[in-house]
Structure formats: C-alpha cells, structure tokens
Specification:
Blueprint lengths: L7 E7 L5 E8 L2 E4 L7 E8 L26 E8 L4 H6 L4 H7 L22 E9 L2 E5 L2 E5 L4 E5 L3 E4 L6 E9 L4 H8 L2
Antiparallel strand pairs: 1-2, 3-4, 4-5, 5-11, 6-9, 6-11, 7-8, 7-10
C-alpha cells in the first residue's frame, strides 16, 4: 500500500441526550492507491458538505468514490503520499493525466500542456492548506518553484500547480481543502488560458 505508516483516525459524536462519545477509533476506511501513478496514495480522513458544518449524524463522508476537490461550500481533509518522480513518468506522464485525474474524480482539474513544467499540473477552485509531514517535495507553479520540507506549509489559492518529488523517498502531505470561488476578473483571465 504505502511505505509510510497508516493513519489513525478518531471520530467523536453525541448520544441522543448530548453526551460526547467516541464513534470511531482505528484505521481510515478509505485509502486509495492510484493505479495510474504507482506510489501515490490518498488517505481520506473527513469532509463536510456545508458551512457551517452539521455536527450531528453518524454517516462517514469518506465512503464512496474518491473526489479531488471539496464539495461546494464544504471541506476535505486528506493525507497524500507522493512517490519520487521517475524519468519515465516525467517523459510520458502527461499522456496519462486524463486517467489519473479521472481516478481522483476530477478530470477537468488537469491543466497539463506540452510546455507545462510538470505532468501533474492542475487547478481546483479551492483554498488548500498543505503541510509537509514527512519527506521533501517541490511546489511548482506557472512561474516559480520552492522546496518544501517537514513543517513547511503552503496556502494554495486556486492556482495552477504540481507537487514534484525529486528525492528517492516518498513524501507525505496533509491537506485541508476548502471550497473557494474565483472572482469575475480572475475567472475570465483563467478562461482565456
């Protein structure tokens, strides 16, 4: 599955009389290795579908198909294991991106073109807080890149980007994705790209 340790999740809730209880204490029920990018693993922790988020009910929102962006008005919490880039992937990865982004439920997120700086270039209409937990990764945007190490935090604001692992070890990142909305001028600029 992954070279990194499994994620332990604890979910709290309430009884009918309002007493706080532990609903779940154990491994994540939804851990998805991607067939199209071997070594990439999505660990789905939780999501919400509205703001403010309902605090009652016991349904697990992580069950079901994997979806990259958060729901409109909602959030998504996940860990992602990013394997080292291989020469083969960098040479031919762009041809497989439709499959990869279909596998994570958002084929339209891929923005890769012949001149893209990395085969995984993509964009979602969300604000994403990304925290490097283990390993090292390079954040690539249209004009620039930065090396990130454990403790680095990225506030990714709906921008075109990719995560490149240029080391020989996997990287694990924690992401909190929050539904966002482009303003009209930016939406028009992006439509012309």
């Amino acid at each position: 599955m992954s070279a990194l340790p499994p994620i332990h999740r604890v979910v709290t809730g309430h009884t009918a009389d309002g007493t706080a209880v532990l609903i779940e204490n154990g491994p994540l029920p939804t851990v998805m290795p991607l067939a199209s990018i071997p070594g990439t693993v999505f660990h789905e922790v939780w999501s919400t579908s509205a703001t403010p988020a309902p605090l009652d009910g016991d349904a697990d929102p992580t069950l079901g198909p994997l979806v990259l962006p958060p729901p409109p008005g909602g959030t998504r919490l996940r860990f992602v294991d990013i394997p080292p880039d291989t020469d083969e992937f960098l040479r031919h990865g762009a041809k497989r991106m439709a499959d990869a982004f279909s596998e994570i439920g958002d084929v339209h997120a891929s923005t890769v073109k012949a001149q893209s700086p990395h085969p995984l270039m993509h964009r979602t209409e969300s604000i994403d807080y990304g925290v490097v937990i283990e390993g090292e990764v390079v954040l690539i945007v249209d004009q620039g890149e930065v090396v990130l190490k454990p403790g680095s935090v990225v506030i990714q604001r709906g921008t075109n980007h990719a995560w490149a692992n240029r080391t020989d070890k996997p990287c694990r990142m924690l992401f909190v994705l929050i539904s966002g909305q482009y303003g009209t001028p930016l939406r028009q600029a992006l439509a012309g790209r």
